[in-house]
Amino acid sequence: MHLTGVGRRYGLRGPWILRDVGLRVPRGALLRIEGANGSGKSTLLRLLAGIDAPSAGRITGRPRTAYVPERFPAALPLTAVDYLTRLGRVHGLRRQAAARAAGEWLERFGAAGHAHTPLSRLSKGTGQKVAVAQGLVGRPELLVLDEAWTGLDPASRRILDRAVLDRVADGASVVFVDHDPRRLAGDCHAVHRVAAGRLSEVAAAAPRSRVVRVEAEGTGPLPERLPGDPVREPLGGAVRLTVADADSDALLHALLTARPSWHIRSVAAADAPEEPRR
Question: Which residues form the ABC transporter domain (predicted)?
Fold first, then answer.
């Protein structure tokens, strides 16, 4: 996707929030947007997501996009699972697949017990989990996150971190804003800053994270909790586990010391992973 000479202002004579913005969002890129409060970060994300239209310039090549706003519209007259299922349908999933994906994401974020709770009755934290899940349920080609980690508990923040990296590894693009400067710091391909209505790159692409793929087989159940929260792909009677390089030794140790232990068939490293679909 390309932004060329993009500007945005509200009203014919309103002040320019953004001016002459140029940005390329490559496929499989993780981009961080920084800037002071009121600098126009959220306006830029809304333009990327297609929520707002530019007042000047043009945006081309926008892929299928999901957007997680800073404030979740919890007043919608739907339950959590109905809302997520509808969003999955919007992204082209069949109803059964959309409902299954909705349930899986609610369970992953520890909110399965609230699947049939109306959105208006969810706590702020659970509502934020639903907000994040709606951005992931349809496996978008572009994911736009505006302070999506705010309001999540530490475990859910880690799950979202992993989900973001999974989408990037699968070839999608992710553009995000977050108040924590450490958020995915070692994984961003570029960092851009909004200041005085202009956008500039402040950090070049970081080296892509290395991952390790472990193929293993065992006679017992695979432990539910494994170091690094690896992506799991069934392979007949075996399983392929994809995990960050930093967690690979701990993962191997956990497999070998499980009762019964797992046999390691192969271990392979990769720089640009094409992780399996969950």
Answer: 1-221
> pLDDT tens digits, residue range 56-106?
999 999 999 999 987 776 678 889 999 999 999 999 899 999 999 999 999
DSSP-derived secondary structure for the chain: -EEEEEEEESSTTSPEEEEEEEEE--TT-EEEEEE-TTSSHHHHHHHHHTSS--SEEEEE---SEEEE-SS--TTSSSBHHHHHHHHHHHTT--HHHHHHHHHHHHHHTT-GGGTTSBGGGS-HHHHHHHHHHHHHTT--SEEEEESTTTT--HHHHHHHHHHHHHHHHTT-EEEEE-S-TTTTTTT-SEEEEEETTEEEEEEPPPPPPPEEEEEEE-SSPPPS--TT--EEEEETTEEEEEEEGGGHHHHHHHHHHSSS--EEEEEEEESS--PPP-
Percent of the chain exceeding pLDDT 90 equals 60
pTM: 0.73
Selection from 268, 165, 145, 162 nearest residue 208 by Cα: 165
Which band of pLDDT confidence, cut at 50, 70 and 90, is reported for residue 208?
Answer: low
Over residues 250-268, the pLDDT tens digits come to 888 888 888 888 899 999 8
User: Do 268 and 275 form a contact (C-beta atoms < 8 A)?
Assistant: no
pLDDT at 239 over 60: yes
* Residue written as token pair 């979740």: 72
